[in-house]
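Milestone 3.1: sequence recovery, worked example.
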């Protein structure tokens, strides 16, 4: 097995697909920077590509296996760092002065990281060129702000284009050219309130290999985000609602062609985007959306990437949906012993994701005592804790006699898997580890009424079935 792995590694190096990332910064000593790429431009799920393990002296070195120009990013401290990797290159990465999140920033679910492009010691890497372009574009957009966004001056926009063209005309990179064109189109779309049909041709010219690049995703979202809902509220809205309920894929391919002037692969991508956003909007039957995404138009699509994207969209939409199987959580408890949420199968499981450093979470957890007294016979409580100071965490749980199994998610693995954006977040699972409610209430926010009403009906049905 080791020889086989070594063989594939050697083949990778020989083919020049490995990019080497090196660097040094003492401020980051002992830290890990995980880099991800996007799964697709619709779901934008995170796919881990490589990790920079930074040693005690601040040195780091890693290899990323890429066979084309690939966009990756890393979130650390207050930052989100963007990076383009090119096959077979060696990059000496420069890290910004490290700044950890403040306590308030850590606890704020709406915190937005400071986004930047990584610089390199070489200074002429694709990343440096894109960073320089974005900075200059932002400066020019600020300079001509009133003319562009209030006056809608075409001459002001032309001036921005000319200046950027003159400054960056010597850069010979297809990725840079795509980035430049899409970023300029984004400014133009904002300045002149352009409708999707005017923006779409720029997106249609982008090859599939560039779909996961940030400039494409930004313009794609700007053009099509929430469009199914907005179109359904327009004059032809009834026909859209009817097409969704009937799973009429042909209607939507024609609609996209006529209204957005798009055909081919981009048309399929737009349809995936419309259905993805429509699913979460609450304006359409979710089962109908899933039927469209499962249609042979996607399942048997001639392009394998479109097939895969459709499956990924479906997987995201049904994840933790009512009736779906929830991931089994296996973690160490506060005493260091591993426990799993599927070890007992005869009770409902109330999962409470919490952060004991937050006052609101502490009050919610205290109320678990009453919930446990009321439902102990039928309910098992699991408290999944964000890792903070383990001693203070333990003291609080013991002093307040918080019931249930207390598990510590040291690496945020299950906090991410359960899509926890803020604390507390709760789920109710049945004995088969399936999600019971689409929206499970927190302890103080009505869980006892929610579960109590459900349990009475459940026990009544069990009793009636046993008497048959």
């Amino acid at each position: 097995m080791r020889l086989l792995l070594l063989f594939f590694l050697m083949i990778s190096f020989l083919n020049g697909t490995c990019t080497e990332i090196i660097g040094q910064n003492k401020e980051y000593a002992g830290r890990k920077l995980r880099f991800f790429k996007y799964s697709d431009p619709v779901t934008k799920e995170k796919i881990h590509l490589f990790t920079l393990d930074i040693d005690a002296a601040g040195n780091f070195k890693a290899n990323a296996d890429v066979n084309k120009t690939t966009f990756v990013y890393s979130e650390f401290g207050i930052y989100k760092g963007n990076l383009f990797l090119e096959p077979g290159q060696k990059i000496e990465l420069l890290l910004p002065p490290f700044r950890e999140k403040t306590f308030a920033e850590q606890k704020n679910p709406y915190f937005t990281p400071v986004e930047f492009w990584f610089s390199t010691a070489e200074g002429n890497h694709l990343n440096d060129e894109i960073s320089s372009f974005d900075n200059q574009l932002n400066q020019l957009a600020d300079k001509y702000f009133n003319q562009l966004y209030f006056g809608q001056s075409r001459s002001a926009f032309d001036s921005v284009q000319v200046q950027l063209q003159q400054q960056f005309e010597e850069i010979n990179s297809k990725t840079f050219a795509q980035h430049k064109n899409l970023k300029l189109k984004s400014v133009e779309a904002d300045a002149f309130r352009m409708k999707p049909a005017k923006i779409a041709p720029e997106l249609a010219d982008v090859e599939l290999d560039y779909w996961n690049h940030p400039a494409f995703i930004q313009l794609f979202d700007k053009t099509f985000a929430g469009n199914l809902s907005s179109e359904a509220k327009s004059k032809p809205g009834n026909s859209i609602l009817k097409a969704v309920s009937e799973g009429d894929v042909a209607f939507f391919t024609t609609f996209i062609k006529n209204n957005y002037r798009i055909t081919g692969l981009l048309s399929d991508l737009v349809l995936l985007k419309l259905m993805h956003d429509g699913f979460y909007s609450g304006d359409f039957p979710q089962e109908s959306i899933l039927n469209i995404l499962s249609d042979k138009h996607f399942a048997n699509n001639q392009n394998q990437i479109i097939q895969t994207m459709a499956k990924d969209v479906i997987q995201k939409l049904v994840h933790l949906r009512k009736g779906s199987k929830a991931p089994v959580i296996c973690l160490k408890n506060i005493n260091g012993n591993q426990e799993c949420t599927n070890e007992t199968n005869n009770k409902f499981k109330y999962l409470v994701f919490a952060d004991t450093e937050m006052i609101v979470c502490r009050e919610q957890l205290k109320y678990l005592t009453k919930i446990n007294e009321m439902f102990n016979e039928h309910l098992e409580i699991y408290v999944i804790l964000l890792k903070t100071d383990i001693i203070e965490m333990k003291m609080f749980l013991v002093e307040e006699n918080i019931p249930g199994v207390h598990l510590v998610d040291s690496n945020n693995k299950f906090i991410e898997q359960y899509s926890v954006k803020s604390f507390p977040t709760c789920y109710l699972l049945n004995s088969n580890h399936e999600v019971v409610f689409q929206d499970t209430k927190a302890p103080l926010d009505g869980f006892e009424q929610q579960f109590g009403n459900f349990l009475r009906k459940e026990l009544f049905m069990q009793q009636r079935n046993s008497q048959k």
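Residues 19 and 89 are 5 Å apart (CA to CA). DSSP finds 20 helices and 15 strands in the chain.
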